[in-house]
Amino acid sequence: MRRRDTPMPWDRVTIPESCPQCGATAMASHVQRGASMGYAFSFECTVCRYQTMADGDMPPEDVRAVFLATSGTWELIHDTDDEKRPQLARFLVDDLGVERAAAVKLAKSRGATLTTGTRVEMEWLHRRLAAHGLTTDLRRVR
User: Which one of 7, 17, 50, 91 is CB 3.0 to 4.6 Å from 45, fit for a cystine?
Assistant: First the structure.
């Protein structure tokens, strides 16, 4: 059960886009939410009232770049105890696609950066790891 004092992370950016129906420029809303690492997009043209929305797992790379530019790049830092390092290495291989040798090396290096991304992505990974008893820290790098 989720505690009420630890809300799931989310972030929103608005980006001007051309209406596919009339060509007018309107603001599109892009939301990255960390409850299930989801992404949502909505657009409404103020001229012709064309509307569209979509959901997915991750934002397109150009939209992700806007999240990184507005909310910064964050890193997930290894702070897991020695006895849990094999479990951390497995997570890095299975969930993040890190090569096995690199995952073992990272798991042995307490204080190492495991990965970087948006604030929402890193908070989501931080929570997933914590659910398995693996300790990490978050830090904004830019």
Answer: 50
pTM above 0.70, yes or no: yes
Can you give the residue range of the structural domain that contains 61? 10-71
Number of domains in the chain: 2
Q: What are the counts of helices (DSSP H) followed by strands (DSSP E) for the chain?
A: 4, 7
pLDDT tens digit sequence for 62-111:
999 999 999 999 999 999 899 999 999 999 999 889 999 999 999 999 99
Q: What span, in angstroms and rounded, lies between the C-alpha atoms of 100 and 115?
A: 15
Torsion-angle region of residue 134: left (phi > 0), alpha (psi -120 to 50) or beta?
beta
CA distance 90 to 104: 8
On whether the CB atoms of residues 28 and 42 are closer than 8 A, the answer is yes
Query: Closest Cα to residue 109, out of 123, 89, 130?
Result: 89
